[in-house]
Amino acid sequence: MFHDTGFIVTEIDYSRRSIEYATEQAKNSFAKAGECH
């Protein structure tokens, strides 16, 4: 995590990307689980 005075927006954007990434990973693993059964 980068803590610079002008980069609060980047930090918010970073957490938003993390949430999107986690959601994507969850979809992928759910899809794989669906294929297995």
Automatic annotation (TrEMBL):
GO MF annotations, alphabetized: methyltransferase activity
Annotated GO biological process: methylation
Domain of life according to the entry: Bacteria
Record's keyword terms, sorted: Methyltransferase, Transferase
Protein's name in the database: 2-polyprenyl-3-methyl-5-hydroxy-6-metoxy-1, 4-benzoquinol methylase
Organism of derivation: Fontibacillus solani
